[in-house]
Write a structure and sequence with these properties.
2 domains, Heat Shock Protein 90, five-stranded mixed sheet, 9 strands, alpha+beta, 12 helices, rod-shaped
Length: about 425
């Protein structure tokens, strides 16, 4: 249970290397406690020296104490150093009371090698390696040349075999479990880091999409408000310069009032859609009259058309219907279609604004006369990118109105099409299927 718990890394601490290192040390110390107990009891069962058996069992408890102390107070690396000293003490006594070179002490060297190689960092790892190897070589040398007296308990080759077998078994299980724990820990860490990175990438993509959306919304606001505000500015500039006769001024002020009224409606429509997009909420749907919205759009755009001496001729085919539609979005699209027709139509020309009401579909057509759009340009007509264009009176266009309208239309279930009904005739259509 404790080992499994040690393998669990949360997203909060997966990037904290000190936390991970501490967890690994704790698991290692706990399993070492269990290993010493098993080796001690095995020695008793096999009839080895009771002294070394009790030393192993007794010195296993400092490891258990170290586990709880490190959990509570930290200082994991210091704890490892202390417990490595205890481990070498166990090894020394095991060498003295368990047949020296002929006993299983040699396995402990490789066990300790794994411990400080995995748990320590920096120069301390090298120091322990040199110190541990020196200690083992000195013990082997001292026994070989009679400077160190050891006790022999093997009564036969079978007892030696059993002692070595059980020691190899427990140490192998210990090392297999610990090494797999290391691998599993870092695999889990790597998976969590990859998961975090993937989510960060998704968040970056979402931020980029939101940023692109913000840019589109700003572009739409700028595009829709540029001409009406420009007209207001020009008119007020002429009023300020006393360019009108007293009789004309009253008419101009009336036009200004009408312009401000339509500009306010346009701003409300655009802001409604912008807020809907930013808050990612459903579009507002209202029951609206198709004929009423058509005449409203004509009145809204007449002031702009009159600046060029143009007329907007409305034709309605079919009986008026009340439908549940997104009025703000529909008005934004129709406004842009009429705005383009006015911009690219000649002075004193007529723009045809046609509504067709059928049982299966509704369609608004905006038709103007002038140079048509080439096949090559038609392919890029609804691609979102800035491209300058100029109307018949050098009115500058940005090329972003139609792509924005296409995006709005697709979201509310409409379709925008461009056709050339006759020579020098442009037709933009807004269509919705009712079937």
């Amino acid at each position: 249970m404790l080992l499994t718990k040690g393998l669990m890394l949360s997203e909060e601490n997966v990037t904290d290397l000190n936390y991970i290192h501490k967890k690994i040390i704790l698991i290692f110390i706990l399993t070492t406690f269990v290993l010493l107990l098993l080796l001690g009891f095995t020695d008793l069962i096999l009839g080895m020296s009771p002294i070394i058996a009790y030393i192993k069992i007794g010195l296993s408890f400092p490891f258990l104490a170290g586990y709880f102390l490190i959990r509570k107070y930290g200082k994991a690396e210091l704890g490892v150093h202390v417990l490595l000293v205890v481990g070498h003490v166990v090894v020394f006594f095991n060498f003295l009371y368990n047949d020296g070179v002929n006993g299983p002490t040699i396995y402990a060297f490789f066990l300790l090698l794994v411990v400080y190689s995995l748990l320590l960092v920096g120069k301390s790892k090298v120091i322990w390696f040199v110190s541990s190897m020196t200690m083992f070589l000195l013990m082997f040398w001292a026994e070989t040349y009679g400077y160190l007296k050891v006790q022999y308990f093997y009564t036969s080759r079978e007892s030696q075999f059993l002692d070595h077998l059980t020691t190899i078994l427990w140490i192998s299980i210990f090392m297999f479990g610990v090494l797999n724990f290391f691998i599993k820990s870092y695999q889990n860490q790597n998976k969590l880091l990859n998961s975090i990175k993937q989510r960060q990438d998704e968040m970056l993509l979402e931020v980029k999409m939101l940023n692109d959306q913000k840019n589109r919304l700003i572009a739409l606001l700028s595009h829709d408000l540029k001409n009406p505000i420009g007209m207001l500015h020009s008119t007020l500039d002429l009023v300020d310069k006393d360019a009108f006769e007293p009789g004309e001024l009253e008419f101009i002020l009336q036009n200004l009032r009408q312009q401000s009224f339509h500009l306010n409606k346009l701003l409300n429509n655009t802001l409604t859609w912008v807020m809907t997009e930013l808050e990612d909420r459903p579009n507002e749907i209202h029951q609206i009259s198709l004929a009423e919205i058509t005449w409203e759009m004509k009145d809204m755009m007449m002031l702009q058309a009159q600046e060029k001496g143009q007329e907007i001729e409305v034709t309605i085919t079919g009986e008026d219907r009340i439908l549940a539609l997104e009025p703000s979005e529909v008005k934004i699209i129709l406004k842009n279609m009429l705005d383009n027709a006015i911009k690219f139509s000649a002075v004193e020309s007529t723009i045809f604004f046609r509504l067709i009401i059928s049982t299966t579909y509704i369609k608004w057509d905006v038709i103007n006369f002038g140079p048509t759009i080439s096949q090559k340009d038609q392919r890029d007509l609804f691609i979102f990118r800035a491209r300058a264009s100029y109307g018949t009176k050098k009115e500058k266009g940005t090329g972003i109105g139609l792509p924005l309208c296409m995006r709005i239309a697709e979201k509310i279930g409409f379709e925008i099409k461009y056709t050339i009904p006759q020579s020098n005739e442009n037709c933009f259509s807004l269509i919705k299927s009712l079937s």
